[in-house]
Amino acid sequence: MSIKIITDSEDCSKNIIDSRNETRISNLEEDRMIWKQICNSTFKTIESNDECEDGWDGKFVKLSVNNKNEFVAKCPEIIGKTKRNKIKTKNNHELQKVIETIGKRLWRMNSIYLGLNSPLDITIKMIQDTANQYLQLDETIQCFFCREPTRQSIDELVQIAYLEEYCKCDEVEQLNKEIILLDGKLNKKSDPSLKKENIKARSLDAKVVKQNQIFYGFCKYSGPTGSVTSSLQKNEVTDFLTEAKNYLDRKQDLHFFAQIDGVAGENEIPLLKGQISDYEEKLFVGNSKQVAAWISGK
Questions:
Q1: Structural domains in the chain?
Q2: pTM value?
Q3: Which of 16, 18, 27, 121 sits in a 20 to 30 Å window from 147, CA-based?
């Protein structure tokens, strides 16, 4: 997965768009190679890894559904044998992910044309035919069928990289959705005692360390006004700010920031600042450039 992160500009919104575009080009190059692999390979459809046969020159594929009735593909490859002389396999994740994406798309968009009554009706031949159709398209149309950069958390990655580039601090860490604010406390999302229905604020995205100070951040890019991302923007940030204030009402040992980029999101910053007027020493809302300056000034 060749994600491209660009931080050339002090305008983080521009960096996000540039990174999306460069990543889309990279994704297309990689996906085209896998489309060709799907078209040119001979597949044997199996139901269990035990059916993998040593000496088979083609590829194995298992097509099934999960407990949500969503199409699932697995592509086991033989990597050797156990001490008991049983076949050892390892899944080809890149190949099966593209096969799975095509299969889901066929079920969602083409089931009526293909006469599909269930995702289980999808065959590897249908997927091969679709991959071949993708390869016949002009590159400008192929972009619509390759992996979408916005599904790779690229916006957040660019915002975190921006802090690494422009913020005067000791350390910037991506938190990988592991920590949430709930009831005025920092919690691990994996904590089994947490009830999902009680969680309102999204998980924290970044941790910044500057000398003996720690800053936890919520990152969000919001597209043009009226888009899905812009409609979700304000509620998500408000939930984060509410939980951050709950924490600061209990303890004053941490700082928090909402890092918001994009036209629609930045338009909301003045209103959001009004929600934290009594917490401005420890809590900040702004775009990436403003957040970097706030942390650098601490």
A1: 12-142 (no CATH), 153-296 (3.40.1350)
A2: 0.84
A3: 121
